[in-house]
Each structure stands twice: as structure tokens, then as C-alpha cells.
Amino acid sequence: MKLKKKLGFFFVSMAILPFFAGMLFILVTSSNSIKKESTGFLSEYTGNLSGDIAAYFSDKLGYIAAFSYHPDVEQFNWPVLGPIMNKIAGSNGTFDAFLLIKRNGSYYRSGNPGNPARGGLVTADNKDPSSEPVLLTNRDYFIRLLTDNEANEKLIILSNPNISKSTGMKQIVAGSNLFDYTGRNSGILAVTIAGDKLNAEIAQVTSQIVDYFGKEAQIILFSDSGALVSLRIYDSATKTYAERVLTAQEDMHLDDLPSDFTTAIALMRAENLPHTAFTTADTKKNWHMALSPISGTNYFLAVAVPDSTLFFAITEIVTSLVIISIITLIIVLLVSIVLGGRIATPLSNTAKTLKDIAEGSGDLTYRLKLVGKDETTDVGHYFNKFVETLHGLISQIKNDSIRMEEISEKLEERSTIIKSDIETISANASDLNFQTEEQSASVTETSSTIHQIAKNIESLSQQIEGQSASVNESSAAIQQMVSNINSISNNLERAGGGFENLLIASNTGRDSMQSVIELVKIVSTQSEHLLETNEIIDTIASQTNLLAMNAAIEAAHAGDAGKGFSVVSDEIRKLAESSSEQSKVIEGELKKVVNTIAGIVDASAKADNAFGAVATRIKEANGLIQEIRMAMKEQTEGSRQVLDALNDIQNITVQIRDGSLEMNQGASMILKEMMRLEDVSRKVQQSTQVIARSSDTIGQTIEEILGVTAQNTEVVKSLNRITGRFKL
To answer: Is 380 in a helix, a strand, or coil?
Structure first.
């Protein structure tokens, strides 16, 4: 695999694998956190909604609790109670009327004059004196408070939705049983709540459900007997949540809901669970449902939300992570291609050139193009400098080898001539006795030739000395190149130290980010304490409101004497309601603060992960520096091998120089012998054998000279072939 592909794969792997691992970790932890927070929010929302509905019913039940012990109520003194209850019901817009029900089921109703012939009891026809009273014995609240209450317990309950016998409209009845002087159930005191008013109240307290849970949630209000009181489902026509029970004429039960909803409600009630999860059999859709009892009543509130809506944030996170991952992958690929090219291309060109040089056929005119200011550029700069130096050395060696080749050719020619002359001398030695006259001339000619040989040998020695000096210069240049490579290695050492300092600084920033996260968590805890304090204030406001209502009842009972006290109680009630509203506003703002702090914690965690990624990149870059340093060490070793080769050439040159000295000495001996021949020309006959032996010696010497010359020629040709491979 090419370095460019390796670097690209390495960069992509080191960037994408930790990134995807981090994304997966974030997805898992975020999903678990979101599921936990979402189900907690669903339970909290259901509890708050239950509290709002409980607050709505609390004043009605407060009237019932206050009046149920009134003497006139216990004695069914309707002539006295009727005007008072008419006034209270008329001034209170939250319920329709009071009901005073006798044990036999007949009843009085405020706002309804009743049948005068029956003492104000409500009859089928109040104008007909003979009309029989209307009986409520079949009402569920009557059955629970009187018929089935054999233990004569004091009970205050809310009824199932029913159709009013007076108005023909759907209503809810809040009632309490009454006792006679013997402690036996004697009747019921109740208030009626019109279905449209209860519907309006529930619509108001659930007005934000679309913002919280979308359009598929369902709000279920039911009694402990399983009767549906309210069912709110989104209506696409009106684009709002619409009532399905309070606006219908027929009665509905939990069994009218899908069986999966009914089973989930039964499970939560049986095991006292705040919430549960289930899957519908028909649509295979996953749901979460939260259940909360309405405090002070026999009602329960359930809120069901599909998981796709409740955990919508998880879907958004998954979508965001997929988009971010795709964008990140594209960016990393592009960056990897660019960085891989920036690093691999110069190194590839350098490797190719070095390979050609190592194989002895390099282009020494090639130079790398330098772009930027980084370690790769420095390597290219020193490579160009190395090639420039090597170019000069090879050029000088090539020129010297050409000169040596010319000298070798001349030496070979001269040696051939000498050999031919010596052969002639040997052939004619036997004729010396017969050619004494010509001996002197021959000796003179031979002496001249030997002088010329001595001069040639001396010239050869000088040329060999020049070759030795050139080899010494080449060795010095190679040593300078080794020194430059060592300088590069030292620079890489200093760069590695800088990366280690940068890694320490990154770790310090990461530690600081951890401290910020801890401080934000402390602020979040303090905000939750403020939420608890606000709930206490809201509770105090509710109790104050109840006290104000009781005061209003007493003031109404006191008549004109209690008007002043009634004004004070109204002001107290308004103050309590204002406090309750402000408490809800404060609660909402505090929740926003808590959510904002949670967002800060998430952002800090992401920043902490980013510091970790920076530290990882620094370690990777430091690893690349170490690899380059090892490569420079290998380059140093190669330069040393070149230096050893030059030393071998130097040794051969020394051997050639020694042979030249020997040749020079032999020439001197020949000159001496020739001088002796001139002196003893008269003794030619006697010296013939000496001349023959001397000729043989000269022949051997010439053979040696020819051998050394041939070796020198081969060395020079080899050197020319080596230098000829390079392009200069």
C-alpha cells in the first residue's frame, strides 16, 4: 500500500473511529438520560396537572365540608338555607347549584324554587301540587354515600358524570353525607359542576400539552369506580385537543378505551406505579402513561404519550449525529487526502530519486519543489542540498576518471613500446659478438629510450598523486553530508519536545473544563432547591385560598353583619390566587434555568471530549516525527557506506602509487646499467650474458607495469561506468 493511501487510511481511522465511538457513547448516554428525564417530566407534568385539577375541586369540596356541619343543613331547613345557597351559587362561577338530598332521594336545589306544595322539593312538575318529588336514589354518589355506606362513615366524594334532571346537561356532583342526632346517615349535601365549566377548566390547565407532547397524547380523567370523567384527544379539524366525555350525552367507562390503555391503568393502580410503558396490539406503537390521583378526591388522572413524541429528542439527536457524522467523514476524507498528498508526494519523489541514486542511475539534476514551512519542507530542502553536494562530487570524480583513463591509455602505449624494444634487445643479444661495431649505437639508443621511460613514470606518479587528492576531497564532502543529516536529527528531537509540551497544555485545559462542569452542577442543584421552595409557597397560597373561602361562607351566614368580613376574605382570596399564579410563573422560569444549566453541562462535556481529541492528534504527530528521525538515522548509515567505498578507492590508488615508485626505481637501475655498457663497450662479449639477464628483468618489470596498467584501466572504466549512470 502506498504511503499516501496509508496516511489517508490512518488519518481517517484515527479521526473517525474515536469520533464514532464518541457519537455512539453520546447517543447511548443521551438516550438513557432523555428517556429518564422524559418519563420523569411526564410524571411531573401529570402530577402538576393533577394538582391544578385538585385545586379546582378543593373550593367546591371546601363548601361541602364547611356547610355539612351547619345546623340548618343537618335539619334540612331549606327555607333558611335556600336564599343563602342561591346567593353563594350565584356569586360563584365555578359551580351551578347546591343540592340538599334527603335519605329517601328527594332533594332541594338552589336556583330551583321547587314545588311549593312539597315545601320546595324538586318535582317532575313544580307547578303541579300533586307531582311527585324527583328521586336521586339511582345516582352513583347517592349509592356510595348512603345506600352502600352501612358503616355511616363521613365521606366527601365526586360523582361520575351524569345528566342533570333539572337542566338536562352533563354535570359532576361533589357531595358529602349528613348525619342526624343519632349518628345515622340522614342525607347528602352536594354542589353540581356543569360539564362545560369542568371542560373549560381542564382545557385551560392542559393548554400547553401540544407544546409538551404533540398531537397524539391522551388525557384521561376517571373515578375510582372506573367511570370516565374526561377524555381529551387531539382534533385535527379544530387543531386543538377536544373533549370526548363531558360533551357527550352517553356515559363512558374505562372499558370503552383500547384494551391496552385499560390494562396499563389497571397495572399502575394495582402496583401503585407512577408510570408504565406498553405497546398497542393493533398499531404496534409504543406508549408511556403516567398516573396520578387527584388529591382530596376519588378521581385519578392519566396522561398517555407515544414514545415517538415523548422521546422525540432522541430522534432529533440521531438525525443530527448522522448528519454530523456524514459531514465529519467528508471533511476528514478531504483533509486526509490533502495532508496525505502534502506528506507523501515529497517523500515519494525523494524515495524515487534516492532509489535511482542507490541503483547507480539517478538524475542528479532533479530538485524537489518546496511549498510551505514544515518538517516535510525541511526534509525536501536538505534533500536538495544533499543532491547538490552529490552532484558536485560525482562531477569531479567523473572528470578525474576521464583524465585517469587518458593517462592509462598513454601508459599502456608506452609500455607496449618498451616491451617491443626489450624483445628486440633480447633477440639481438646473441648477435652482439658479431655486431660490436653497432653495439655503441644501440646502447646509446637504448639509454635514450630508458630516459624517456623514466620521465613517463615520473609523470604517472604525479597524476596518481592528483587522483589521491581528489579521493580525499570526496571523502570530506561525504563527511559534511553526514554532519548535515545529524543536524536534521537534532532538529527533529527538539520538535518532539515541543509536541510533548503542547500535549501537557491540552491536558491542563481539559482539567479546567472538568472544574467548570462541577460548578455548573452545583448551580443546577441550587436551582432545584428553589423549585422546592416555590412549591411550598404554592401550597401556602392554596391553603390561604381555602381559608378565605371558609371566611366567605361564614360571612354569608352572618348576613349584613359579615359584609365587612366578606370584603376582607375576598381580598385575602385574591391575594392567595395572585400568589399561586406568581408561584407558577416562578416555577416555569426556574425550570427554564434548570434546562439551560443542563445544556451548559452537555456543552462542557463536548468541549472536554474535544480536548481529548486534540491530545490524541498531538500524540499521532509526535509518532510521525519519531518515524522521520529513524529514517534520517538510516540515511546516515547509507552515507557512511559511501564513505567506506571511497576509502577503498583511496587504498587502490595508494597501491598504484607504490607500483609507480617501483617502476621508477627499475628505470634508475636500467640507466646505471646503460652507463656501464657505455664504459665497457670493449667488454661486450663478456657482458652479453649480463645484458640477457638484464633484458629478462626489464621484461618482467614491463609485464608488471602492463598488469598494473590494465588494473588501473579497469578501475577507471568501472568508475566511468558508475559516474556515467548519473545525469549531471
So the answer is: helix
